[in-house]
Structures are given as C-alpha cells and as structure tokens.
Write a structure and sequence with these properties.
Structural class: alpha/beta
Strand order of the largest sheet: 1-2-4-5-6-7-8-9
Shape: globular
Number of helices: 11
Bound molecules: ligand C2E, magnesium ion
Radius of gyration: 21 Å
C-alpha cells in the first residue's frame, strides 16, 4: 500500500510540476509580445511625508493586462522577465513612461514629487544602464532629482564591485537611489557605508507586524535610527492602519507608503488629487 501511495504521490507531483512549467512557458511566451501589444500599464502609489501627511513622491508599479487571463501580478511575471532578459526592454519602457508621467505630475502638483522606479538586478548589470537613464530623463524633460531608482540589497552580495561605478554615475546624473525591501536581503550591511544611498525602505513584513511582534518592532526602530544616523530618508512600506502610521510618527520615521494613504492607481486618478491637502490630522502626533 505504501508503495502504491508513493507512486501515486509521485505522479501527482510531476503532474503538478508539469503544469507549473507549462504555465511558466505560456507566460514567457505571452510576455514576449506584451510590449508590442501594449498590454502593460503603470500604476503609481503615493509616498507620504509622515510629518505633514502630504504626498511627496510616488512609486511606479508595473501592471500587465493579458486578455483572457486578466491582470497578472508583477510578483508572478517579474522573475520570468528577469530570467529571460525581457526585463531589459520592459524595464526601459517603464523608466521612459514613468519619467514622462513624472513631468505631468510635477506640472499638476506644483510641489516636488519624486517618481520612484524599481530596477531588477539584470537591469543594474546591463552595461548601458546609465545611458538608458540619461536618455529617459533627456527625452522626457524630468529633472534628475525627481527620479529615484529602487534596488534591492541582494545585488550587493555578488556584484558590489561592478555596481560601485554604475551607482556612482547614476548619482552624478543627480538621480536618487533607494534600497527597497530593506531587511529581507542576504548581503552584508557594509555596502551601506560604501554606496551613495538616499533612502531606505523598510520592508512591509516588519511594518505590518511591528505593533504585535517585539522583534519586528526592534528591527523597524533600528532601521529608522540607522537611517537617521546615516542622514538618509526612511520609508515605511505597507502602512495599512492608523495605529501603524502614528507609531511610525512617534519613531520619527520620515516617510510612509501603503494602503492607508493610497492604493496604487493609474496616473489619471492621481492627477485628480491635491497633494498639498493632508488626508491626515498629523498635529496630534508627537514628533518630539
Ligand atoms: P515593491 O517594489 O516592494 O513594491 C511594493 C509592493 O507592495 C507593491 O506590490 C504594492 O502594491 C504593495 N503594497 C503597497 N502598499 C501595501 C499595503 O499597504 N499592504 C500590502 N499588503 N501591500 C502593499 P506589487 O505592485 O504587486 O509589486 C510587487 C513587486 O513587483 C514590487 O515590490 C517590485 O519588487 C516588483 N515590481 C513592480 N513593478 C516593477 C517594475 O516596473 N520593475 C521591476 N523590476 N519590478 C517591479
Ligand atoms: Mg519598490
Ligand atoms: Mg518594497
Ligand atoms: Mg518587494
């Protein structure tokens, strides 16, 4: 019986794997044509200055609408794009569109609004990234200091040396650099002293548990303190509740991003908002 069950399980397992592989190949196939079929769009999620409640930036989040399948989450296709190198043309499209939209946001808002764009490791290792960024800025007319590139810390584990020059040159353009999902990577912290970084984003797994889990709270507080010590901004990701927002204010976290403030939304929607109107009564928050 055990043997029979074993074989049966084995079969189920391989069928499951085959299905997954199939789905993956289908996605990769569809991804290859997504750009030319104009199936991508960008959503933007507000980043709020915790001290004033005002929108001072937006993060660009890629959306893929595949007819017949619906909207596919970037968590399902970014890896495939990365492994197949499709991330290079897709990433360049994102960068160019985000810069163009950034100019429109700037015109609408009147106050500086930084546009953050996620970069994948392969984009960072591509030889002409600095040229691609410079051209996106030039062609759109966006001021370099209004563009921020988000990178994750794992890249520093294997490619710190190669990255040094690239990030330096990006910084020389006047473009900002943020470390995304901070605290979830595997690289040594020493990179943070050697690289030109403007901002650290605390991963949402810490932020969402900091009020109930003392360990998550300790990490959150430590990252905020470290950011202040380094003289860089610190953004809490995934802020969903008023309580989290108030706690972050008390800890002197400078910026927040999350469903409490705004969902990721199309540019048209954002252009309707008035960023100078704080949705939050921040007066009661003591920021000592
Ligand atoms: P990320 O860069 O860390 O982006 C933040 C993710 O958290 C987004 O998921 C956003 O919708 C989600 N989020 C924001 N606020 C909240 C909240 O309050 N609660 C919860 N539960 N989630 C929140 P999304 O849009 O699904 O993107 C997932 C990831 O895909 C991104 O994580 C980023 O790593 C990647 N990604 C998205 N767009 C691009 C892109 O254009 N290029 C590259 N290379 N990666 C991208
Ligand atoms: Mg990000
Ligand atoms: Mg993140
Ligand atoms: Mg992430």
């Amino acid at each position: 019986a055990a043997k029979g069950r074993g074989r049966c399980n084995y079969q189920v397992f391989t069928e499951f794997m085959a299905e997954q592989l199939n789905e993956r190949l289908e996605l990769e196939h569809a991804l290859q044509r997504a750009l030319e079929l104009e199936q991508f769009s960008l959503h933007y999620q507000s980043q709020v200055d915790i001290r004033t409640g005002q929108t001072v930036g937006v993060e660009t989040l890629l959306r893929w609408h595949l007819p017949g399948t619906g909207n596919i989450s970037p968590t399902r296709f970014i890896d495939i794009a990365e492994e197949s190198e499709l991330i290079l043309p897709i990433g360049e499209w994102v960068l160019r569109k985000a810069c163009e939209d950034g100019v429109l946001l700037q015109q609408r808002y009147g106050t500086p609004c930084v546009v953050a764009v996620n970069l994948s490791p392969r984009q960072l290792m591509q030889g002409n990234l600095v040229t691609v960024v410079a051209e996106a800025l030039n062609d759109s007319g966006l001021s370099p200091e209004l563009l921020e590139l988000e990178i994750t810390e794992n890249i520093f584990m294997h490619h710190a040396e190669e990255l040094q020059l690239t990030l330096q040159r990006i910084r020389e353009l006047g473009v900002r650099i943020a470390i995304d999902d901070f605290g979830t990577g595997y690289s040594s912290l020493s990179y943070i002293t050697r690289f030109p970084i403007d901002r650290i984003k605390i991963d949402l797994s810490f932020v969402q548990n900091m009020l109930t889990d003392p360990n998550c709270r300790a990490v959150t507080n430590a990252v905020i303190a470290m950011a202040h010590g380094l003289g860089v901004d610190v953004v809490a990701e995934g802020v969903e509740t008023r309580e989290q927002f108030e706690y972050l204010g008390q800890q002197n976290c400078t910026h927040g991003q999350g469903f409490l403030f705004a969902r990721p939304q199309p540019l048209e929607q954002l252009l309707l908002d008035d960023p100078t109107l704080s949705q939050f009564d921040t007066v009661q928050i003591s920021t000592h």
